[in-house]
Amino acid sequence: MNRSELVAALADRAEVPRKDADAVLAALAEVAGEVVAKGDEKITVPGFLTFERTHRSARTARNPQTGEPIDIPAGFGVKVSAGSKLKEAAKGK
Q1: pTM of the model
Q2: For residues 92 and 59, is the Cβ–Cβ distance under 8 A?
């Protein structure tokens, strides 16, 4: 399912115009990005998803073409965890 299909499904399910459903989806993406960028809190939608910023330590990796070691600096990533209802849906229940 791509974005336009998701917007159409949300609009049909919520019985709102597609334009409004698209605006809500865009706002959710913006808010999630802002919260993750700050890094001091996480977003939890109970039973669905949790988004949080994680710290990655500095490490040494290998260049796959040459085998040379590469130093990768410390940084940040995003952890997205599925909630219980989403996990049950994935199991087909």
Answers
A1: 0.74
A2: no
